[in-house]
Amino acid sequence: MTTGCIVIVGAGQSAAVAAHALRDGGHDGAIVMVGREPHRPYERPPLSKAVLVGAEEPRLDVLADDDWLRCNVDLLSGIEAVRLDPAQRRLHLAGGRTIDYDKCLLATGGEPRLLPWAPCGGERIHYLRTVDDARRLRASLRARPRIAILGGGFLGLEVAHSALAAGAVVTVIESAPALLTRFLPAEVSGWLEATLRSEGAHLRLGTSVTRVEPMGDRPLLLVTGDGERLEVDELLVCVGMSPNDALAREAGLAIAPGAGVLVDASCRTSDPNVYACGDCASQQRPGQQQPTRLESWQNANEQARIAAAAMLGSAPPVPPFPWFWTEQGRHNIQMLGLPAAGLDYVRRGDPASGKALWIGHRGGVPMQGVALNAGGELRALRPLFDRARPVPMHEFAQDHLNLRAWAKQLLAEPAATL
Ligand SMILES: Cc1cc2nc3c(=O)[nH]c(=O)nc-3n(C[C@H](O)[C@H](O)[C@H](O)COP(=O)(O)OP(=O)(O)OC[C@H]3O[C@@H](n4cnc5c(N)ncnc54)[C@H](O)[C@@H]3O)c2cc1C
């Protein structure tokens, strides 16, 4: 049992899961959580999906009421932490209050990357990170506007589907010549593009917006790099996220090349009493050349559990293979493992039928799995990824193969027989 004061900066996904894991792990002392938003910790994934299109807003709380009460967290919401003093083990809050801690967990997430010509909160201009952003966007979608979505990443495309479902006229503008090819095999990228077009979205690929005019209550006129002038009622800017690492940076803690609070395998920063998890943390992973940040729900949860265990001095859980899901309208896409250059992909099923599964491998060793409406099958293959040994890829593509039985059989065989 531990009894000191643990302060958690941020009150989002990983903060809530960390508080829960701390209590589960026997922490009996105070847990103080400082959150800039005026809300209890809530889930963000529905913000681009059900919150935009559902008849009613779904419940978003990360923890059910009884779990939250059991955590006995002193939540200071609507307050920003402005300075971290690791030498004094003290956190300074806006307004002058300070909190002395035994351990501090930075769970500060990130902010949308802003474009200088598209001011956050500007008339008809949207960014999407918080529930308040999502409510504002939802209200705008009610008028079935012409909306341009700048950025064809997972988030932008999720909103494109939601906006189509809400009856909007949707144009997606993406600077790359194809959608999401950094993360997905080319076939999935092509399928996404064809699906969006068939559902009525207009796509402008390989170009960007260079100017917007005029502002005020008139429609926006977007001017693209190739000279197109596009009149829209609303603009959503979805061009990535910057991690909130300023507290750590200004406190002199190590920052990863690029950005993000640098942490070790137990989510400890360069200060032994300060930990970081979730979207703000950058961690060295096996097989990766640089520390990486994973902006995903699973990562936020897993790193929160690892940090909690480490703060309590217990053995941290083994990190699972990275997993991510996205909902593109009625389609569910799941990814296991991280994309890497030069993977060979083998496909099973046919995306045209709405269901397919890809394994990206190197010399037969599965490195990335991508499931289109086939999450259950991908789950069955997970142990093959964990084991990191070659498997006979030519068998995987055979239609008649029972995947579960195949994976089970491979796992039972010694490596040399494969
Ligand atoms: C719209 C949307 C859809 C998503 N969909 C998916 C999905 O389909 N699948 C998936 O895997 N992932 C998805 N994600 C990503 C996932 O939600 C995030 O990875 C996860 O929320 C990260 O959790 P976190 O705790 O690190 O950060 P957050 O949940 O962002 O919480 C950080 C909190 O810290 C607060 N904070 C920051 N600085 C300070 C400070 N100085 N003082 C006080 N408080 C501070 C912030 O205001 C924020 O409330 C989505 C994200 C968004 C925004």
Automatic annotation (TrEMBL):
Q: Does the keyword Nucleotide-binding apply?
A: no
Keyword annotations from UniProtKB, A to Z: FAD, Flavoprotein, Oxidoreductase
Alphabetical list of Pfam families matching this protein: Pyr_redox_2, Reductase_C
Q: Which coenzymes or cofactors are required?
A: FAD
Tell me the domain of life: Bacteria
Residue ranges of every copy of the Reductase C-terminal domain listed in the record: 323-405
Tell whether Amino-acid biosynthesis is among the UniProt keywords. no
One Gene Ontology cellular component term attached to this UniProt record is: cytoplasm
Q: Name one GO molecular function term.
A: oxidoreductase activity, acting on NAD(P)H
Ranges for domain FAD/NAD(P)-binding: 6-304
What's this protein's name?
FAD-dependent oxidoreductase
Q: Which organism is it from?
A: Ramlibacter aurantiacus
